[in-house]
Amino acid sequence: xxxxxxxxxxxxxxxxxxxxxxxxxxxxxxxxxxxxxxxxxxxxxxxxxxxxxxxxxxxxxxxxxxxxxxxxxxxxxxxxxxxxxxxxxxxxxxxxxxxxxxxxxxxxxxxxxxxxxxxxxxxxxxxxxxxxxxxxxxxxxxxxxxxxxxxxxxxxxxxxxxxxxxxxxxxxxxxxxxxxxxxxxxxxxxxxxxxxxxxxxxxxxxxxxxxxxxxxxxxxxxxxxxxxxxxxx
Amino acid sequence: xxxxxxxxxxxxxxxxxxxxxxxxxxxxxxxxxxxxxxxxxxxxxxxxxxxxxxxxxxxxxxxxxxxxxxxxxxxxxxxxxxxxxxxxxxxxxxxxxxxxxxxxxxxxxxxxxxxxxxxxxxxxxxxxxxxxxxxxxxxxxxxxxxxxxxxxxxxxxxxxxxxxxxxxxxxxxxxxxxxxxxxxxxxxxxxxxxxxxxxxxxxxxxxxxxxxxxxxxxxxxxxxxxxxxxxxxxxxxxxxxxxxxxxxxxxxxxxxxxxxxxxxxxxxxxxxxxxxxxx
Lengths: 233, 279
Description:
A: Ferritin, 3-stranded parallel beta sheet, 7 helices, 3 strands, 3% strand, B: mainly alpha, Ferritin, two-stranded antiparallel ribbon
C-alpha cells in the first residue's frame, strides 16, 4: 500500500485505473484540490459511479436530474444575489430578483420532490468568477444562466420519453424565457430577443444538447458529475 | 417546397436522421430520381411518411400541429404588421409610444413574420392559407388600433396565448427531434415577447404587472381574456404541491408557485380564444 500511495502521487498509469483503492484515493485528492470546473467523465466503468462523480441515472431520470442540477445552480445564484445585493440596486430590481429566486427554488424543490430517491445530492457551486457587488457582473451571469436554461430545455425536449415529463419541461422553459427576456432588458432595453439568441431569419431560439450545456455550466459547478447515463447528441 | 433543403435542415439538427429512416435510405440518397417520380403535390405526404417512419407520428398529426401553429403565427404576424405601420405608429406616437417601444414592436413583428415563413417552408404545399382577421374580436376591442394601451393589451394576450398553445402541442411531437425542437424554439421566443410586452404595459399603466403570469388573469383587461389565463393559477405539478415546498423563509408562496410554471392549453381551448379574431 505504501507503493500504491506513492503511485497515487504520480501520474496515474493506465493499467492502475481499474484499481478501486487507487482510484478512490485519486478522486479524493482531486476533490480536495477543488478541481476546476465540473468533471464530465464520459467513458468508463459504471461500477465506479461513486468514485467518478454524482451519477445522474439514465433515460428520463438522468434528464430530470440534469434539469435539477441546472435549477440548483440558478437557485443558488439568485439566493446569493438577493442575500447580498449589488450596490445601487433599485427597488424594482430587488423585487424581480426575489421573484426569480423563488421561481428557481420552486423548480429545484419540485425536481427534488418528484425525483424522490432518484434525486442527485445537492451540488457544490463555484461562484468565484462572479462579483456579486457588481451590477454588471450579476446581470451578465443572470443572462448567461437564463439563456443557457432556455437552450437546455429546448434542446433536451426531444430526448424525453415520458409525455408528462415533457409537459413539465415545457411549463418551466417558458418561465426561464420570461426571466431571460427581463434580464436582457435590464442590461440593454429592447434586447429581449437579441440576435445572439434568436435567429433573425427564422425567429427560432437557441437549443443546446446536454453535453453542450454542461460544458458551459461546468464553470460554476464544483461537484463532479457522472453523465454516463445521460441521453445527449 | 424544397425537399433537398429540408433534408439538409433536418440533418443539421438530427445527424442520425438517415439511420432513423433506414428503410428509406436509398430513396433519400437518390433524392433526385425520387423527386422526379413523385408529383410535387405528393411531397408533403412523402415527408409525412418519412416522419412517421422516423418518429412514430402520423403525417397528419405532425402537419396538424404545424398548421395550427401557422394559423396562430399568421394572427400574430398580421396583428403586429398592421400595428407598426405608419398610420398606427403616427397614432400611437401621439399617445406616448417612443422610439424604444416602436423598436421592440418591430423586433416582435419581425420574429412573428419569420415564424410564418419558417412554418410555411416546412409545410410546403400542405400549409393552410392565411385567414382574414378582425382584431377587434367582433367588437370586444374596438380601439385596438387607435388606443395604444389597448393594442399593447391585446399583444400581451396574444403572446401569452401563443406560449400556452405551443406548450399544449408538445406531447403530440414527443421524441421528434426536428419538429419538437423547432416548436420549442418558437415557444420560448413567444415567452420572451410576452415578458417584454408585460414590461411595456407595466411601465405605462399596470405598475403591478410582472413579466411572468401571477395567478390566473393578471392582465387588468377584464373577463374578456379569462380564457387565455384559465388554469394558470395551478399550484400542483405532477402531484407535487409547490406551496408545500420550502422557500427561503417558510413555504413557497402561492404567487411564486403559479409564476414558476406556465400552463398549457388544448387546441380546442386555444381555438375558442382566437376564433373571435377571425373575420
